[in-house]
Amino acid sequence: MTNSTAGRWPLAVLLAVTLTAAAACSARAQSVAKQRPGPSASSAPASDGVTASPGAGTQRPAPVESNPPGDIPDNIAYVTYRNAAGRYSFLHPEGWAEQAAAVNVTFTDKLNGIIATSMAATAAPTLGGAQQEVARLRSSQPAFEFRSAKAIKLPGGSGVLIVFRRNSAPDPVTGRVFRDEVQRYEVYSAGHAVVLDLFGAVGSDNVDPYTKISQSLRLA
Fold first, then answer.
1. Suppose 143 and one of 53, 61, 172, 219 were both cysteines; which one would form an S-S bond, judging by CB atoms 3.0 to 4.6 Å apart?
2. pLDDT (tens digit, 9 = 90+) per residue, 47-93?
3. DSSP secondary structure of the chain
4. What gap in Å lies between CA 61 and CA 41, rounded to an integer?
5. Domain limits of the chain?
6. What is the DSSP string of 153-190?
């Protein structure tokens, strides 16, 4: 791995820049980064002071599957991923495809994925910052739909959790688009922050795997 190029840029700028870099690590995530933003169809209220408003763009939200594929198996094994350049580690399901570049890493398997990146920071992300992040996501994520935001404290650090929905990238073979739900953890500790995106098809039951992964996150 190469040394981090994040430097000491403001956290708000780096969140937008490094998300794009991390997304390029996988074909599916790369396609997501290239999609046009779409309108929000959210009927869920904003939370903890973060305001939800309609998104801009031309894409409509993809239909939610009545029997969504892609639950992460309960009996799957987990292994530790460590990023020396980014100074972080977490557990991920064994056997998922990995693509890493400097402080960024992407793991994917069918409709599920993990994207992580690290950056220098001077303080923990706040709900005020989450408001700005939601605005950026609305302009960059296809058919963005805000769900919730709240302050969190994990074993690895403190920060915010933003939950949102978007259209997935088209399947490279069939062209099919699924409706994704993303849990974005923005966590700070010891002078740097990690953004950890956990995503899968809306309706998938991944509560336990997401808890296991997020609780395992450590910042060095």
1. 61
2. 455 655 444 356 899 988 777 677 999 999 999 999 999 999 999 99
3. -PPP--TT--HHHHHHHHHHHHHTTSHHHHHHHHSPP------SPP-TTPPP----SSPPPPPPPSS---PPPTT--EEEEEETTTTEEEEEETT-EEEEETTEEEEEETTEEEEEEEEE-SS---HHHHHHHHHHHHHHSTT-EEEEEEEEEETTEEEEEEEEEEEPPPPTTT----EEEEEEEEEEETTEEEEEEEEEETT---HHHHHHHHHH-EE-
4. 7
5. 11-63+70-219
6. EETTEEEEEEEEEEEPPPPTTT----EEEEEEEEEEET
Q: How crowded is residue 75: how many other Cβ atoms within 10 Å of its Cβ?
A: 4
| Topology at the third CATH level for domain 11-63+70-219 | Protein Transport Mog1p; Chain A (3.40.1000)
- Is the pTM above the cut of 0.70? yes
Longest dimension (CA), the chain: 45
Residue 8: CB atoms within 10 A of its CB come to 10
